[in-house]
Predict the structure of Dynamin-related protein 4C-like.
Amino acid sequence: MASKNKHSKTGLQQKEGNEKAPMDFDAQPLALVAEEETTALVPVHPPLMFSLNERIRPLLDAVDKLRHLKVAQEGIQLPTIVVVGDQSAGKSSVLESLAGISLPRGQGICTRVPLIMRLQHHPHALPELHLEYHGKTVPTDETHIAEAIVSATDEIAGNGKGISNTPLTLVVKKRGVPDLTMVDLPGITRVPVHGQPEDIYEQISGIIMEYIKPEESIILNVLSTTVDFPTCESIRMSQRVDKTGERTLAVVTKADKAPEGLLEKVTADDVNIGLGYVCVRNRIGDESYEEARVEETGLFQTHPLLSKIDESMVGVPVLAQKLVQIQATIISRCLPDIVRKINEKLNASISELNKMPQNLSSVAEAMTAFMRIIGISKISIEGFGEIEVGHLRDYPSVREQAFDMKMRITAYWKVVLKRFVDSMALHLLLSIQNLVNRDMEIEVVNEFMGPHGGGIERILEESPAVAKKRERLYKSIKLLKDSKDVVAEIMDRITVED
């Protein structure tokens, strides 16, 4: 068996002259054997879970709660591990190995919607699995999980071969899985097959770019060792948004299929993978996940070519450990900005809501608002004449008494006034004034206050645009307040622990 250089550079430090890694995730190789001596070909594997930091689970729970609240709708991006790869690159195999479950397989695109995988270690022997989509929770088990995912996908994206940007969440609570949340996206394909839309490539590219563009996203790029890395479409996409590769980790699948030249590929790093490479062996046939890990370890220890790759860059356990470390680091780094953005968005939404017009809830309020809008002061009531009402807005409690008094005074004043009208010019002027002002106001008021006008009721009804905006702001404020409570709880816990 070829010996390994235990001090060789890791994936974070491979590039010659690179004195400092783009992100200090402090990745260390996972011990694949127990502390007691074992033979090289029969390693004792720990489960794929780690107690790197007691804060990891609370941090991840907080982000998952924010994602469930859909805080991204408010423009607040969450730290996310996004899994991308060309079609048939082996994404499903990698995710199956991390989660210890079987995902849908078949020809063409298996993942037709963004699949949010929430993995959580728990001590119970019986796993707990369920799907979340369209506001409902659907429990399932390991035997039927693939079938349940296909059924949920069909409900979301239709029974054909099209795709959708509506996410499907898979929650896996199982002994030994790493605490991870990842988003698996549809595999990249350029040529549509029968039943797929002609613009399938553009649709998939749009979804992928939406998820990997935010700086808070970590890109897990799945590459097949059988292809030339620079030609992979997934590499080209990630390079467009992460030119230096500082937030891209590559996992190379099917290492046993084309071992020749793999060492050179992952050490030369011609495509700027800043977080390094991890080479893995896919599970074959009916192998259990435990058997697959034993075979994988033996492959990288005994193969004349693959054994030369540093142990910190091979194996699913190493991949799981790196992902957990990267995830914890990016969440800790982004959390203060998330708190700041939530507060800013909340304050802005409250301020915008306060600037909106008053929501009228009674006829009295509608009457006051109506008089204020049209500036009525010359209101005419049959049998009593014209009544001055403008100043009554400030005295709602004595409105009826004031109306009665004013109507009596106005009626008397009208009699007196007529006796002073001794000039045709004044009469014409008054007639014109009445025509332009009083009569038009009467028509307007009758339209709103008449028995058949229904104007007051119409005032109580907000326009659809205003009502929609008010509802949106109410929802936004509630979402942001709930999000603020979530991050406040985790920040308080961090402060106490410090």
Observations:
- The CA atoms of residues 449 and 487 lie 52 Å apart.
